[in-house]
Amino acid sequence: MAVRAAVAGASGYAGGELLRLLLAHPDVEIGALTGNSNAGQKLGALQPHLLPLADRVLEPTTPEVLAGHDVVFLALPHGQSAAVAERLGPDVLVVDMGADFRLKDAGDWERFYGSPHAGTWPYGLPELPGARAALEGSKRVAVPGCYPTAVSLALFPAYAAALAEPEAVIVAASGTSGAGKAAKPHLLGSEVMGSMSPYGVGGLHRHTPEMMQNLGAVAGEPVSVSFTPTLAPMPRGILATCSAKAKPGVTAEAVRAAYEKAFADEPFVHLLPEGQWPATASVYGSNAVSVQVAYDAAAGRIIAISAIDNLAKGTAGGAVQSMNLALGLDETTGLTTIGVAP
Amino acid sequence: MAVRAAVAGASGYAGGELLRLLLAHPDVEIGALTGNSNAGQKLGALQPHLLPLADRVLEPTTPEVLAGHDVVFLALPHGQSAAVAERLGPDVLVVDMGADFRLKDAGDWERFYGSPHAGTWPYGLPELPGARAALEGSKRVAVPGCYPTAVSLALFPAYAAALAEPEAVIVAASGTSGAGKAAKPHLLGSEVMGSMSPYGVGGLHRHTPEMMQNLGAVAGEPVSVSFTPTLAPMPRGILATCSAKAKPGVTAEAVRAAYEKAFADEPFVHLLPEGQWPATASVYGSNAVSVQVAYDAAAGRIIAISAIDNLAKGTAGGAVQSMNLALGLDETTGLTTIGVAP
Amino acid sequence: MAVRAAVAGASGYAGGELLRLLLAHPDVEIGALTGNSNAGQKLGALQPHLLPLADRVLEPTTPEVLAGHDVVFLALPHGQSAAVAERLGPDVLVVDMGADFRLKDAGDWERFYGSPHAGTWPYGLPELPGARAALEGSKRVAVPGCYPTAVSLALFPAYAAALAEPEAVIVAASGTSGAGKAAKPHLLGSEVMGSMSPYGVGGLHRHTPEMMQNLGAVAGEPVSVSFTPTLAPMPRGILATCSAKAKPGVTAEAVRAAYEKAFADEPFVHLLPEGQWPATASVYGSNAVSVQVAYDAAAGRIIAISAIDNLAKGTAGGAVQSMNLALGLDETTGLTTIGVAP
Amino acid sequence: MAVRAAVAGASGYAGGELLRLLLAHPDVEIGALTGNSNAGQKLGALQPHLLPLADRVLEPTTPEVLAGHDVVFLALPHGQSAAVAERLGPDVLVVDMGADFRLKDAGDWERFYGSPHAGTWPYGLPELPGARAALEGSKRVAVPGCYPTAVSLALFPAYAAALAEPEAVIVAASGTSGAGKAAKPHLLGSEVMGSMSPYGVGGLHRHTPEMMQNLGAVAGEPVSVSFTPTLAPMPRGILATCSAKAKPGVTAEAVRAAYEKAFADEPFVHLLPEGQWPATASVYGSNAVSVQVAYDAAAGRIIAISAIDNLAKGTAGGAVQSMNLALGLDETTGLTTIGVAP
């Protein structure tokens, strides 16, 4: 029994990565592919790496085109998903890869996105406490942002075990695909190769409230987040360096034990052996998350570092993983923990 | 029925890529993994992207360790395969990813490698005329070099259709993984990032006689090859720009027709639509070959350009494709034409 | 006595590099800086690496703004220089960094640029036979294209010494800054990092007639050029791999001697010691040209390879070098042969 | 009057960058160049970008070779400078680019370097309070580490103005040249391109006590430092993201004012206009430091970010700047604030 899937927004980076994964999924049949300005073009000209779909033609993103599928993935600009989703009916699984349904607090949404809040859907990060149960059988999924995926997985075990003070400091480096496919001068290869630069400093990044929401829920108290994203000269990957002051009495052993426990049964999160540190190259193209943690006794801080592929586990892989849970399939179907390296 | 495969030389780039592909192959079970200086180490420290094998320990490369497998892959330094192969017995499929058994002319071997010629095995480039039949059921396979794979696929249709003069001029750019994992100063990231440079100019590269052998066999006459390899600032990929003077009377239509015919039934070689040109990013991590060809009327030359992943189709993917043929499996089993991009 | 220089098109890559060089020129005072869509903005926001000019404001590109300077550099889109130049008066030195005045053949211009031919100015590649004399004291200079600079310097000694047949085959790799600062999807960092790709294949590149013009003038007969440009994952640099069949009787010694003679007194062109090959990293940011040549006896071809910085010697450095000659300054003033490496 | 300078360790990255800068210094004449394993080789083979010195031959690093110079720069492995320095006499200016004489606390040195402490020299970061006076006329200079340069300049204004709590959290990304020219597998281009990875996490990096020393001296109290260095896929550059909790009552205006005051008269440190953030590309090859600071009211933290070229201001540029002060030259002689970009 094949699940028939439509992808709205098939010409962008998230849509392209999703199609790459769906092509390898044994239970999925790829249905309608839609675009906006690119409707009418062949996918081969837009996503030349997806050879099996080279002759497929993009259709416009309309309810008619998206009708008749078991699953509809929305890879649309922020704020556009709600209008599409409400036309799709309650029996269709809708997986939103945008931000529209991630936040619980309407005020947060409005402050960062400037439009009315559309609602909150089950959150597609199964590794968070309680998240898996909410996804099983759900007809709606909000896929997390790429930074919140990396950061929440790096830090939640410290908060779940009550080891860390509720003030997290995070510096994350992202590959350029996280900024999307729209041509902007500062994203030109000439600008980004050989350069590291920050952006959205000082609480201005839209992903900050999502991190606070995730970590606060685990901690049982509000967690402040100082988040600085940086743009790194690579196409893919996020390296998130996260730290927080340790609570009194914390030991290196307790920290290690908390992380071992948190990820013991997780198929995609890999706590590295002590002494080995994550590298984004190791998870290139895979749904794996590499995590390492250290207790810096001199500074009194817990330092947790994660590496993900921003397009895979950070977006499209997380979407497929959640789809599997929602449809009652094995959570790992069609996904890999094997990176493409070097 | 699982095919049990051993990999000699599992710590290098070719061995690592082979393991990545074998992990995705439905009919293969991974047996012994061997190394030399790395024997005794866990694979997780050497190939951190291969998470499912992280706890496997490398064994020494001995006949005893390699015994008892259906297939043995040799990813060894040039000149070491013959000694290992002769201890493996005639019933084991031996796939040599080194150069030892590629050349037919013993003099060529001795001139470029400086040791006695070990012999010639069926050549693992199924797309070449006659090659597929020689591979089916064979117990020995010589996997082609990465440059000869890219160049032979780009140019053989022009020679098969007698459209090109027997003097080919080739300039190819390779990612740095083609130079292997041994630490050498000129391969440091600091040296290669931001830099293009040639090497082995003027007929000095060991892959030149292999190209001449392939193209000459198709042309039915000796083909001279002027080959200049260059090192490009990327981990993977080969872009081969190949040209030859057109024979009198050749037309653009005849050139296009020859290439369409040559690749019509090939599962991995994709002749791009006119106007679209290959990019190595499109075949990253895949077994696909992107080819485009043009007839430059003003210069009177046929220009054929191919893009491959040097580690995949250029080495480990070609090895798996040939293994499939040798074992009687579907040629495409476990291989993909979908690249990891962007 | 300071030379007062204006730069029209100061917000692009060519204009920015020119300003970088002029800031280091002891005899130049930087006057008006103009832009089009960027007029009114501070240079610090557009060219943040030019700290001493951070507070300068771009003015519109008008004759009034450009009046009153000793030198006016035009870094404008192709086809726009003629209209500006004719308003500047015959006593102002006008250095055009665009293509408008490079070609002698009006038909070539019209075929490749699709507009009426504006004329031909002294050609700013002093190393070509006869070029230096035409530049000295001239009030008009046409700066060569970046590819023609690299290719002409690599090959002209072979033609000057009548060693090569008049059919050149050229494959060149360029950094992305050669494509300019206009935001286009295929130039995004996500697209170009990790990828090599050709473009303008089969005689379609606008720089081809310029190469033919240069090489033909030296050879004394028409030289056909098969030119394939490729885009490399680096911000700067051109590596040009150029070859031609050797004329009968040519020897490796004769080839070496011709190149030694051609560059013996050149301040910027460096013929590398035998066995060492050019790398674009070595000339990063400098006006130097690294050249090496080999005679491939087996293929009967002369292979000459050059490395330049496309923005420096290939554009802005060539412009300053020509300005020096035109103004009667020492040709090397303000220019360096020292690259920024690694 | 030319200052005659010798460079011990001329074949490495620090030595090469120093020579690049000294070649552009109007008052310096380059004397002896020494190496160890490379003694006897021509510099052209080791530092091909330094064309004017291509024929200079490296000599062994002995007191005899280094004698007779006004300045001797030591670019040697850590722990080797003391033995060389004591043979050079008290009247020679010795500028040590290694770590040997940076730390004041002998215990810190022994803990991180495992050898006896050689002493403490005037610290070559003129921008720190009090540092400039100690350098003027000194015959000994300890050049700071690259990370401490970036971090100290980013944070000291906050401590000088008593705005920040004494617990700094720092995540810095460095280009690969910071790891030197010795060939190690994890520094291969194949490994680093496309990858971000941390190292020396949890207080293990040798630069941490140097940062604590600098910040503590300014703060007038011990400052703890949580420092995580990461390796970025670029040859040069450090981006240091530094933060600390703001003391009670701090405002954004007070933070801005403190930074404006600290850098008002500094020739190399540039506080960017509000809203613009540092990028390492902007300072490529220059001695400039780009700094920006923000007050994150929600998290209650001051976030200061700096970008430097690790080889220039971070090593060789800092060495020349200090040499200028020690010799009584203008501090900026031979140095530039203009980066090579894009």
TrEMBL record, chains A, B, C, D:
<comment type="function">
    <text>Catalyzes the NADPH-dependent reduction of N-acetyl-5-glutamyl phosphate to yield N-acetyl-L-glutamate 5-semialdehyde.</text>
</comment>
<dbReference type="Pfam" id="PF01118">
    <property type="entry name" value="Semialdhyde_dh"/>
</dbReference>
<dbReference type="InterPro" id="IPR050085">
    <property type="entry name" value="AGPR"/>
</dbReference>
<comment type="similarity">
    <text>Belongs to the NAGSA dehydrogenase family. Type 1 subfamily.</text>
</comment>
<keyword id="KW-0963">Cytoplasm</keyword>
<dbReference type="Pfam" id="PF22698">
    <property type="entry name" value="Semialdhyde_dhC_1"/>
</dbReference>
<keyword id="KW-0521">NADP</keyword>
<dbReference type="InterPro" id="IPR023013">
    <property type="entry name" value="AGPR_AS"/>
</dbReference>
<keyword id="KW-0560">Oxidoreductase</keyword>
<keyword id="KW-0055">Arginine biosynthesis</keyword>
<feature type="domain" description="Semialdehyde dehydrogenase NAD-binding">
    <location>
        <begin position="4"/>
        <end position="136"/>
    </location>
</feature>
<protein>
    <recommendedName>
        <fullName>N-acetyl-gamma-glutamyl-phosphate reductase</fullName>
        <ecNumber>1.2.1.38</ecNumber>
    </recommendedName>
</protein>
<dbReference type="InterPro" id="IPR000706">
    <property type="entry name" value="AGPR_type-1"/>
</dbReference>
<feature type="active site">
    <location>
        <position position="146"/>
    </location>
</feature>
<comment type="pathway">
    <text>Amino-acid biosynthesis; L-arginine biosynthesis; N(2)-acetyl-L-ornithine from L-glutamate: step 3/4.</text>
</comment>
<keyword id="KW-0028">Amino-acid biosynthesis</keyword>
<dbReference type="GO" id="GO:0003942">
    <property type="term" value="F:N-acetyl-gamma-glutamyl-phosphate reductase activity"/>
</dbReference>
<dbReference type="InterPro" id="IPR000534">
    <property type="entry name" value="Semialdehyde_DH_NAD-bd"/>
</dbReference>
<dbReference type="InterPro" id="IPR058924">
    <property type="entry name" value="AGPR_dimerisation_dom"/>
</dbReference>
<dbReference type="InterPro" id="IPR036291">
    <property type="entry name" value="NAD(P)-bd_dom_sf"/>
</dbReference>
